[in-house]
Spermidine/putrescine import ATP-binding protein potA
Amino acid sequence: MNAPLVDISSVSHRFGQQTVLKNVSLQIEPGSYTILLGPSGSGKTTLLSILGGFVSPSEGKVFIRGEDCTSVPPAKRPTTTVFQDYALFPHMSVGANVGFGLRMQGVDGATRAAKAREALALVGLASAFDKKPHQLSGGQRQRVALARALVVEPAVLLLDEPLGALDLKLRRQMQDELKAIQKRVGTAFIHVTHDQEEAMALADHCVVMNDGRIEDEGPPERVYARPSTRFSATFMGESTILSGTVTEAKNGTISVATPAGAIMLPGTLQPGAKVALAVRPEHLVLVAAGGAVALGTAEVSDVVFQGSFKRVLATSTVDPALQFIAKAPASASVQTGDNVAVSCDAGDFILLTH
């Protein structure tokens, strides 16, 4: 088995008395697009700063290409960083901005210019070489920052919320372009965001962080469909959460007592075990469905039209603390105040033990 490109080993970090990273270990494979996903304060930006060499960890090691880079300064390690604010030099042309890293490496002017033109062509800005940054749109400036980072051919490209300053349409467009560029150049990208949709659009390796720890990691399809923890189930997309207790277990099946009634599903937990059952919005059905698990009735409290579907919030009539989140077809006639029957196929429950 090949060694990972990046190996973060038992990294912890403190700012004064506050511990912001708690014994984090993570491996990044060559050619992968890794997303560090989490809320503000989860430690994702600190971890990226440690990878880039801008922060030295309080404990632990960072290996890149098998070499210990824990104390290596940013300019000496095989990484480059793209920041949210682009950090372009306003007095320099676009070409000079892109070639700046090569200039710092002592590359001659002609080679710099040629490589800068290649990098700009890669991001679709071949004609912008002689322009100044203020003549470009926000999306174009983001692409210049990307070209400047890629021109020095880093082993790992670090992206700190690079699309956060863009409007929604441009952000979606840049997501598509980022993914295409990453596939073309084959460099490993590590990208910090708090946007779950961005994570699912870009990543082939998704790392969900919370309170300085890694909650879950894997392909985004798996993290979404079968999250490992309750936090992951509610942060990587939305979920209805049913708290429950295992009351019976035999022949690989458990019975879980929940506010919506007893639910049978595959499992080997012991009676008395506290669990949570998560259901994704697209798996909740707002009518009684034959063969599905009935979850009782609920009163619709909110309906939001979102184009291809309606997002429906409904409160259980049995337990007011139980809130259902469902996706109904855009054509559904459901309205606020309606009483609806709620059901779900047994195979769509996600069993969470922590």
In short: Helices lie at 44-52, 94-104, 109-122, 138-150, 168-185, 196-202, 220-225, 230-235. Residues 6-234 form a domain with the Rossmann fold fold (CATH 3.40.50.300).
